[in-house]
Amino acid sequence: MYDVKHNLHQILDTLPQGTRLVAISKYHPNEYIMAAYEEGQRVFGESHEQELRLKHEQLPKDIEWHFIGHLQTNKVKYIAPYVSMIEAVDSLKLLKEINKQAEKCGRVIKVLLELHIAEESTKYGLTLDACRQLLADGEWRSLQHVHICGLMMMASFTSDHDQVRREMQTAADFFDEVKAKYFNDDEAFCERSWGMSDDYLVAIQTRSTMVRIGTTIFGPRVY
Ligand SMILES: *Cc1c(COP(=O)(O)O)cnc(C)c1O
Fold it and tell me: What pLDDT, on the 0 to 100 scale, is given for residue 72?
């Protein structure tokens, strides 16, 4: 096995106070997750509904599962009963479906709005203007079973750290904008989810509160 415990502690040791680790366990077996769990890690992220369902069934119930992938509306009902946070909400339609399914379960589900800032055109997420529009529209205020807790983004996949830094800084500035305008009285709106294996050190410098790291902990994924 990849030295999960060693890698986990190396990352935890570099994280400043106020930045939490979401251990991204997609495509990795339960024994890898348990190795991190035994070291005290409780927050894990997955991006496929079926894989998450199996792992949730098989693994300890005090794990907080974050759904980090692109979520189709017809899959929301399967994860709504237990998911801790849905990180990549990129439409009002999806937000409303999460609200509907959470209501059926008698839950309030935490979500993040996913921003599209990176230059690649294939990535999901709301442009800054689309996100402004969604918030200005105001319908989200009537959704009692979702709680918008912050923003999430993926930076461009590039070795150009200046570009990555610019993109993350844009997200951090945008967080301040919407925090001031819509969430000033809401302490729960505090999360900035950016930073992965290759760029989490930049993320820490651009006020990330949640880094999502897979490969550096668990090794390369086997698809
Ligand atoms: C897979 C994934 C990660 C983790 O990527 P690593 O490079 O393995 O650290 C983070 N965020 C999202 C949205 C992902 O899909």
Answer: 96
112 within ligand 1 shell (Cβ under 6 A): no
Radius of gyration of the chain (CA): 17
**104-128 CB burial, b ≥16 within 10 A, e <16:** eeebebbbbbbbbbbeeeebebbeb
Confirm or reject: Cβ of 197 under 6 Å from ligand 1.
yes
Ligand 1 geometric centre to CA of 187 (Å): 27
188-220 confidence digits (pLDDT tens): 999 999 999 999 999 999 999 999 999 999 999
User: Is the CB of 213 inside a 6 Å radius of any atom of ligand 1?
Assistant: yes
**In the structure, what pLDDT confidence band is assigned to residue 121 with cuts at 50, 70 and 90?**
low
